[in-house]
C-alpha cells in the first residue's frame, strides 16, 4: 500500500513566503507530490480537522490563526511518509524542535508553527479525505 500524508503550510508560513522552501524539502527527500492546493480554510473544515482539540483552551485562538490567511495544502506519497514527515517537520513546540527540522529552522512559538503534518496513517487518511476530493489527487508515475 502506498502511504500518503497531509502536509499543510499554515497561514504564517504562507505569509512569510516559506511555501517554496517547505515544498522543496519534501521533493529533495524523495517523496512524491500527489495533491496541492491553496485555500483560505473555512471554519467548518478546520473544526473537523481539529475535532480532537475542541476542548483545549487554545482552540479559539487556533481557529482564529488558521483562518487568518490562505494555506497551501499538499498530499505527499512514499515509503514511511507519515513518520518521516513528522521528523522533517519537528516537534509541535518549535522551542523543542531540532535544528534542521522545518519548525526548528523557521519558527519560535507553538501557536505559529508554520506547518501541519498528519500524526498517523489513519489520521492522514481522514485528513486527506477532509481536505481533498478524490479527483484532486494525481496518481502519476515517472515511467509512464
Ligand atoms: P499541530 O500539531 O499542527 O496541530 C494542533 C495545533 O494546535 C498545533 O500544531 C499548534 O499550532 C496548536 N497548539 C498546540 N498546543 C498549543 C498551545 N499550548 N498553545 C497554542 N497553540 C497550541
UniProtKB/TrEMBL annotation:
Enzymatic class: transferase
Family statement drawn from the similarity comment of this UniProt entry: Belongs to the NDK family.
Official protein name in the record: Nucleoside diphosphate kinase
GN (gene name): NME4
Residues the entry annotates as binding ATP: 10, 58, 86, 92, 103, 113
Membrane topology note: Peripheral membrane protein
Gene Ontology terms: biological process: CTP biosynthetic process; GTP biosynthetic process; UTP biosynthetic process
Subcellular location(s) per record: Cell projection; Mitochondrion intermembrane space; Mitochondrion matrix
Reaction(s) this enzyme catalyzes, per UniProt: a 2'-deoxyribonucleoside 5'-diphosphate + ATP = a 2'-deoxyribonucleoside 5'-triphosphate + ADP; a ribonucleoside 5'-diphosphate + ATP = a ribonucleoside 5'-triphosphate + ADP
Active site: 116 (pros-phosphohistidine intermediate)
GO CC annotations, alphabetized: cell projection; mitochondrial intermembrane space; mitochondrial matrix
Domain of life the protein comes from: Eukaryota
EC number: 2.7.4.6
Domain Nucleoside diphosphate kinase-like, residue spans: 2-139
Keywords: ATP-binding, Cell projection, Kinase, Magnesium, Metal-binding, Nucleotide metabolism, Nucleotide-binding, Transferase
GO-annotated molecular function: ATP binding; metal ion binding; nucleoside diphosphate kinase activity
Required cofactor names: Mg(2+)
